[in-house]
Amino acid sequence: MSRISSFLGGFGEVFASLASPLWNYPERMQKLSRFLMRCFVLMVCVGILIWLSQRPVFALRQVMIEPVVGQTLKHINKPVVKQQVLETVQGNFFSVKLEDVKRGFESMPWVRHANVRRVWPNGLIVSIEEQKPFGTWGGVDSHTLMNTHGELFAGRVSDVGDGIQLIDFHGPEDASKEVMRLYEKANAWFKPWDAEVKNLTLSERYAWHVKLSNGMKVEFGRDEENSDKTLTEDRVARLFKYWPQVQEKWANRVDAIDLRYANGFAVHLASAGLKKNEVDGKKSEQKQ
Questions:
Q1: Is pLDDT at 51 greater than 70 in this prediction?
Q2: Rounded mean pLDDT, 167-188
Q3: What does pTM read for this prediction?
Q4: Structural domains of the chain, ranges and CATH numbers in brackets
Q5: How far apart are CA 103 and CA 116, in angstroms?
């Protein structure tokens, strides 16, 4: 009982201190006054900063556009782009959302990446990585180009400089990176012939063929469904192994090669217009 009575007595003292007027406790009054004064000073400072940030001096007036290191901007009209940015960007030096400006630039034709940063007191600097056209996508009349990273972007052949030879690519819209990978492989394969890939087509079924700079067409078919991922490389190696025999028999008359056969390859003669299945890897190997 003594414990209960002491607890109730302590609780009564606390309640009495809380219920009594605050001015009866000078120390608490001083602490509260200091706290309220700090809050007031903080609110005044915040208000001043907000007022200053909305002054006309901080309204965006300058947009500097520069290329990334190692590039020059060939397809971007700086004055036009600057004017578009100043007309569309919302906010001032403090409130502008740099990510929105970045997305706006990257939605423009010929802009691959953009990096935006503030410049005191009312400017922006935009570093632009311009698209490097590497090939057409869907033919020369298409308004889609492929860059050196295997990415598609909106552009026309007429916008590309005369000194750039574009590769002709065809394929499904979502397969541009795969097309670039196949191009790099095929280009490396035919280096011994001093030939380069000028055209690559990937069908909806992912069968593919190329046309080389020497005018020859090479049909690879599709090999992604096979468990042996080196199947195409093996067939190309077989072609190079027996190619001297083909040249000896039909020198400079072959205009197409079909590598879709399991044990050999077929050639097409330009002059005769006939398909020859006579170059069989296994048979040739047996003759030697």
A1: no
A2: 95
A3: 0.73
A4: 58-130 (3.10.20.310), 133-287 (3.40.50.11690)
A5: 10
